[in-house]
C-alpha cells in the first residue's frame, strides 16, 4: 500500500530565464514525482524536457550523487577517492587553508563559482566565507555575460533592470537578438512568444526553433551585429522614424552616432553581415511600428566585439524612445531591484579582509593556476570548469599539479571533482529551503525542502558554516542560519512576507506590468542614457559605439558557435542516462551545405575540428540552420564520459571580448576535415 501523498511547491533554481514553479509529489515524505506547478505562470504544469528527465532521474538517484566527503587515494586527476567523516574532511581543508594564509596569504587560495544553482543562499552565502578568508575570486560573470554587463553599464548605468515580460501585451514588436529561447528559455518560447500580439523578429546566425517560428529571421554571420544595428539606425533616420524629442530630453551623444550613419546603408550592412538589405529594411520597419521590446541575448555578447555590439543595439532602443512607457524596453537580465532584494544581504561584502584581493577573469584561470607562487589552492563550488572553461587540455594538466590543493564541492561527481584532493558532497535544491528569482520574469519563488539529502550531503551554506568553524572564526554572520537569512530577505522585499506564506503559494510577483525606467532617470553619471560615454572612453573604448564588424574568416577557417543545448543545462545533466542517449556517443557539428561540399564532408561523416588550442572528433550534420562559414556544436558534454576525454572547450582559446575581460566563446575559429576512421 503506498503511503500518504502530498504535494510541495518549489522553484527551479537553474541558470535559466524561465524560473519555473515545480510541484513535487511525495509519498511517505519521499519524492515520487517532480512536475511543473500547474498554478505557476511560467511552467503552467510542465517542466522543460531536460529537467523532467534529470529531476526524476539522476537527481533522485543516490548512486549517481556525491553522498560522502571524499579524499584522494590515487594519483591526482585519477578520480580515486576514499570516504572520510565530515570532521576529518573539514579538518584537512581548514588545516591547509590556515597554513596557506600564514605562509602566503588568503589570496593564494583561488575560488571559482558560478550558477550551478542560482538560488540565493546556496549561490551567495559561501561568499561570506571567502570574503572573510580574503581569497581570490575568479570573476564569475567573465565565463558568461560580463561584456554585456559592462556595455549596458556605460549606456544605461545598469544591466539588470530589463523590461517586464508582462508588458508584451502593449508592444508592437519583440526583437530577440542573439538569444535562443527555444533552448534557453523554453517556456518563454512556448507561451510568451506565442501569445504576444506583437510581431517577432529574431537576429541569430542559427535558425533555431524560435527563429524558424518568428515573423522575420535575420541570419547574419557571427560578430557582425553592430553593422546591422547601424544600418537599422540609418533606415530609421532616413525614414524620419527617430524619436528626436526623446533623444534630446533623455540621452547624451546622439549627434556623435548620427554623424556615423550616412554610409551605414542596408546595402553596406548586407555585405558586412550576409543579411539581404531588404530584410534589414523590414526589421527596421517592424521595430519602428510602435513600442518595441529588445531582448539582448547572452549569446550576442560572447563575441570579440560583444560590448560594442551591445552599445550599438542599445542605441537602437534609445533612437526609438523605447523606454519609460508600456510595451517598450530593453532586456538583458532582471536582477533583484524590482523585487526589493539586495544580494549583499546574503553575500555580506562587509566581511572582506582589509587586503581583499582583486578578482581575475575566467579567461585567465589556467595561467593563474599554473603560477605556483600565486596559487596554492583552488576551490570550486557551483561550477564545473574542467568541462566549461577554455583551454581544456592545458587546464586539465594544470589541475594535476601536486602543489595545487584542489577542493571541489558538487552534488555529482564531475570532471572537476575528479581532479580534487578533497570532494565535499552538496545537497540538491530538492533538499533544503532557499529562495529563487527568475532573471526574466519578476517572480520570486520559494525553494522548499522536499526530502533529506542522500547520505551525508549538505547544502552549500552548511558546508561553509562548518569550514568557518574549522578556521576558528567567530563572526556571527558566518554562522547565521538559513531561516534567519530567508526571513530577513522576505521581510524587506516588496512582498513584505514570510517563508511560510511564500511557500504555501509557491511564488510571488510584484503588481505589473512594471514599466522600465518609468521616471526616465538612468543611473549613469549624467542621469541620461549615455550613447556617448566618458566612462567608456576612460576605459579605452570609443566614446560611442562604432559600426564595426568581424571580417569573414580566412585561410579555410570556420567560425564555431557552441551555444546552449536543448537537453543540457550548461554542463549539467550529461550524467542523466536518458539525456546522454539522446545526445549520442559523439558531438555533432552542423555544416552549411556549401562548406560541406568544399570540404568533401557528407552527412554523418566522422570529422575532426582543430585549431592552435586543440582538436575535437565529431560527426557532421549538414543543413542551412547555419550560414556559410559557420559551424554549430552545442556545449555541455562531459570530457570524462567521452572516448576522446574532451569536449568542445578543447578548441576554446579563452580569448577575451572587448569589454569586461569576458568570454567570447562564439568567436572561436577552427578548420574542419574528414577523419579517416568512421
Ligand atoms: N563552449 C562553450 N563553453 C561555455 C559556454 C558556451 O556557450 N560554449 N557557456 C559558458 C556559460 S554561459 C556558462 S554560464 C558556463 C557554465 O559553466 P558551469 O557553471 O561550469 O556549468 P554548470 O553545468 O552550470 O555547472 C555547475 C555545477 O554546479 C553543480 N551544482 C548544482 N547545484 C549545486 C549546489 O547546490 N551546490 C553545489 N556545490 N554544486 C551544485 C552542478 O552539478 C554542476 O556540476 O559555461 C561556459 N562555457
Ligand atoms: N537548455 C539550456 N538552457 C540554458 C542553458 C543551457 O546550457 N541549456 N544555459 C543557461 C545560461 S548559463 C545562459 S548564459 C543562457 C544563454 O542563453 P542565450 O542567451 O540564449 O545564449 P546562447 O545559448 O549562448 O546563444 C544564444 C544564441 O546566440 C547566437 N549567437 C552567437 N553568436 C552570435 C552573433 O554574433 N550574433 C547574433 N545575433 N547571435 C549570435 C547563437 O547562435 C545562439 O542561437 O541560457 C541559459 N539556459
Ligand atoms: S531549467 Fe528552466 S525551463 Fe527547465 S524547469 Fe528549470 S526553469 Fe523551467
Ligand atoms: Mo551562462
Structure description:
It is a single chain. With 678 residues, this protein is α/β, with parallel strands linked by helices. The chain has four domains: 5-64, Phosphorylase Kinase, domain 1, CATH 3.30.200.210; 70-143 and 348-508, Rossmann fold, CATH 3.40.50; 163-331, Dimethylsulfoxide Reductase, domain 2 (3-Layer(aba) Sandwich); 558-674, Barwin-like endoglucanases, CATH 2.40.40.20. It is 30% helix and 18% strand. The chain has 24 helices and 27 strands. Strands 5-4-17-16-15-6-7-14 form an eight-stranded mixed β-sheet, covered by helices on one side. Strand 12, helix 14 (306-319) and strand 13 (329-331) form a beta-alpha-beta unit. The protein is globular. The structure holds ligand MGD (2 copies), iron/sulfur cluster and molybdenum atom (MO). One ligand MGD is lined by residues 15-16, 50, 144-145, 177-180, 183-184, 203-206, 208, 220, 222-223, 225, 297-300, 302-303, 561, 563-566, 568-570, 636, 666.
Amino acid at each position: 500500500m503506498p503511503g500518504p501523498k502530498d504535494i510541495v511547491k518549489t522553484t527551479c533554481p537553474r541558470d535559466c530565464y524561465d524560473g519555473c514553479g515545480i510541484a513535487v509529489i511525495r509519498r511517505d515524505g519521499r519524492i515520487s514525482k517532480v512536475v511543473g506547478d500547474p498554478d505557476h505562470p511560467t511552467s503552467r504544469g510542465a517542466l522543460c524536457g531536460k529537467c523532467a528527465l534529470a529531476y526524476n532521474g539522476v537527481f533522485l538517484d543516490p548512486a549517481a550523487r556525491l553522498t560522502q566527503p571524499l579524499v584522494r587515494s590515487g594519483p591526482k586527476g585519477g578520480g580515486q577517492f576514499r570516504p572520510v567523516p565530515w570532521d576529518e574532511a573539514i579538518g584537512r581543508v581548514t588545516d591547509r587553508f590556515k597554513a596557506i594564509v600564514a605562509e602566503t596569504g588568503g589570496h593564494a587560495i583561488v575560488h571559482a563559482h558560478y550558477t550551478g544553482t542560482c538560488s540565493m543562499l546556496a549561490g551567495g552565502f559561501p561568499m561570506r566565507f571567502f570574503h572573510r578568508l580574503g581569497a581570490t575570486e575568479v570573476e564569475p560573470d567573465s565565463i558568461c555575460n560580463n561584456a554585456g554587463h559592462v556595455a549596458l553599464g556605460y549606456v544605461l548605468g545598469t544591466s539588470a533592470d530589463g523590461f517586464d515580460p508582462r508588458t508584451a501585451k502593449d508592444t508592437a514588436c519583440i526583437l530577440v537578438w542573439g538569444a535562443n529561447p527555444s533552448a534557453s528559455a523554453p517556456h518563454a518560447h512556448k507561451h510568451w512568444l506565442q501569445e504576444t500580439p506583437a510581431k517577432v523578429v529574431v537576429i541569430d546566425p542559427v535558425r533555431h526553433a524560435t527563429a524558424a517560428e518568428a515573423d522575420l529571421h535575420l541570419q547574419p554571420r557571427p560578430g557582425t551585429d553592430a553593422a546591422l544595428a547601424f544600418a537599422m539606425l540609418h533606415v530609421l533616420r532616413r525614414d524620419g522614424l527617430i524619436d528626436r524629442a526623446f533623444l534630446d530630453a533623455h540621452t547624451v551623444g546622439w549627434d556623435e552616432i548620427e554623424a556615423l550613419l550616412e554610409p551605414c546603408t542596408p546595402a553596406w550592412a548586407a555585405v558586412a553581415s550576409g543579411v539581404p538589405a531588404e530584410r534589414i529594411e523590414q526589421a527596421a520597419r517592424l521595430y519602428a511600428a510602435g513600442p518595441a521590446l529588445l531582448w539582448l541575448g547572452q549569446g550576442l555578447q560572447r563575441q570579440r566585439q560583444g560590448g560594442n555590439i551591445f552599445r550599438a543595439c542599445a542605441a537602437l532602443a534609445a533612437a526609438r524612445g523605447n523606454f519609460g512607457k508600456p510595451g517598450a524596453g530593453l532586456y538583458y537580465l532582471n536582477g533583484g531591484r524590482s523585487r526589493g532584494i539586495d544580494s549583499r544581504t546574503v553575500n555580506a561584502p562587509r566581511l572582506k579582509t582589509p587586503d581583499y584581493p582583486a578578482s581575475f577573469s575566467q579567461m585567465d584561470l589556467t595561467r593563474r593556476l599554473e603560477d605556483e607562487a600565486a596559487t596554492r589552492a583552488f576551490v570550486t563550488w557551483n561550477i564545473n570548469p574542467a568541462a566549461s572553461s577554455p583551454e581544456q587540455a592545458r587546464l586539465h594538466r594544470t589541475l594535476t599539479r601536486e602543489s595545487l590543493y584542489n577542493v571541489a564541492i558538487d552534488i555529482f561527481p564531475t570532471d572537476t571533482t575528479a581532479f580534487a584532493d578533497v570532494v565535499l558532497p552538496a545537497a540538491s535544491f530538492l533538499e533544503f529551503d532557499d529562495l529563487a528569482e527568475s532573471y526574466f520574469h519578476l517572480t520570486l519563488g520559494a525553494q522548499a525542502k522536499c526530502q533529506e539529502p542522500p547520505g551525508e550531503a549538505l547544502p552549500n551554506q552548511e558546508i561553509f558554516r562548518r569550514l568557518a568553524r574549522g578556521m576558528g572564526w567567530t563572526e556571527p554572520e558566518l554562522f547565521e542560519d538559513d531561516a534567519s537569512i530567508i526571513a530577513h530577505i522576505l521581510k524587506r522585499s516588496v512582498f513584505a512576507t514570510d517563508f511560510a506564506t511564500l511557500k504555501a503559494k509557491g511564488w510571488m510577483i510584484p503588481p505589473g506590468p512594471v514599466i522600465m525606467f518609468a521616471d526616465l532617470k538612468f543611473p549613469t553619471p549624467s542621469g541620461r542614457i549615455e550613447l556617448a560615454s566618458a566612462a567608456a572612453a576612460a576605459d579605452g573604448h570609443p566614446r560611442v559605439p562604432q559600426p564595426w564588424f568581424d571580417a569573414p574568416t580566412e585561410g579555410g577557417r570556420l567560425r564555431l558557435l557552441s551555444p546552449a543545448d536543448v537537453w543540457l543545462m550548461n554542463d549539467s545533466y550529461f550524467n542523466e542516462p536518458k539525456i546522454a542517449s539522446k545526445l549520442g556517443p559523439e558531438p555533432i557539428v552542423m555544416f552549411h551545405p556549401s562548406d560541406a561540399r568544399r570540404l568533401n564532408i557528407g552527412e554523418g561523416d566522422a570529422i575532426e575540428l582543430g585549431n592552435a588550442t586543440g582538436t575535437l572528433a565529431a560527426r557532421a550534420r549538414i543543413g542551412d540552420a547555419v550560414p556559410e562559414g559557420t559551424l554549430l556544436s552545442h556545449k555541455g558534454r562531459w570530457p570524462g564520459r567521452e572516448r576522446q576525454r574532451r569536449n568542445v572547450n578543447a578548441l576554446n582559446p579563452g580569448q577575451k571580448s572587448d569589454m569586461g575581460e569576458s568570454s567570447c566563446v562564439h568567436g572561436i575559429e577552427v578548420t574542419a576535415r574528414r577523419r579517416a576512421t568512421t
